[in-house]
Amino acid sequence: MSLVPQIVPAIVVKNPDGTYAVRVQHTLEGSVTEVQFHNHVFGEALATGYAAFLNGEAKVEAKTESVKTAVEAALGTAKADATAELKKILGEAKSEAQAVVADAKRDAETITTVAEREADQVQSVAKSQANKIKADAEVEAAKVVKDANTLLEVAEAHAKTAEADAKAEAEKLVAEAKTQAERILDDAQADAKRIIGDAQSDAKNVFEASLAGAGDTETTAVKAVKKAAKVVETDVEKKL
Questions:
Q1: Tens digits of residue pLDDT in 78-134
Q2: For the range 58-63, what are the long-range contacts, defined as Cβ-Cβ under 8 Å and sequence gap of 24 or more?
């Protein structure tokens, strides 16, 4: 694996949209590379871990350069001493490099684990809140439906009661009207019978008187009958 050239440590940069990037400057002239991490949940953790990893490799590269310089100096004096010094420096450099890489890897894993745990907690809280809102909405909806059904039952009961009362009142009025009509009719019939009886009696008396009298007997009898009939008709109309 080739090392990424850098003259300063890699840094984590937060983008305007909330994501993160790692900025690596390769040369003094300004050659720069930015590695983007677009995940809004784990972006910061991933960027931090990657920067730590790059910076660990840079330290190893710097140490290697110092080893190379030391080796060249040692070769100028004595090959044997240079070889021994080289092994010593290489051993130290390797140990230090392994330690740096291990630390960087451990830091990256720790950051990633913490970010994942926090993301799980956020998702769990959001899910709980969503379930609670849904449950509350279902309870409220059931209450509204129940209240509506209760109001409907009350309205139907009132309607039935009003209908029954109206029907009873109508039947009562019809019965009273019928009774009054029957009473008026009975009274009219009784009066008619009485008046007719009186008229018949008067007509009989007139007829008998006409037989015993003289002259215009027939005309007098007819007038008496007509008068009696008119009285009967007028009286019946008043009763009705």
A1: 566 736 774 785 588 478 848 855 885 888 588 668 748 884 884 887 488 859 968
A2: 58/3, 58/4, 58/6, 58/9, 58/10, 59/96, 59/97, 59/100, 60/3, 60/93, 60/96, 60/97, 60/100, 60/101, 61/3, 63/93, 63/96, 63/97
Residues 67, 98: Cα–Cα separation, whole Å: 16
* Residue 175, both tokens: 């019965």
Indicate left, alpha or beta for 215 from its phi (over 0: left) and psi (-120 to 50: alpha). left
54: left (phi over 0), alpha (psi -120 to 50) or beta: alpha
Q: For the whole model, what pTM was predicted?
A: 0.29
232/196 Cα distance (integer angstroms) = 7
Cβ(31)–Cβ(5) below 8 Å:
no
If phi > 0 it is left, if psi is from -120 to 50 it is alpha, else beta; for residue 227 that is: alpha
Whole-number Å distance between alpha carbons of 67 and 85: 9
CB of 24 closer than 8 Å to CB of 35: yes
| E strand intervals along 26-184 | 32-37
Whether 18 has a pLDDT exceeding 80, the answer reads yes
Residue 189 has pLDDT above 50, yes or no: yes
- The pLDDT score that the predictor gives to residue 218 is 53
**Domain locations in the chain as residue ranges:** 11-128, 174-239
- Half-sphere exposure at residue 88, Cβ-oriented, CA atoms within 13 angstroms: 9
* Phi, psi torsion values for 33, nearest 5 degrees: -125, 135
Q: What are phi and psi of 216, to 5 degrees?
A: -95, 45
pLDDT at 35: 95
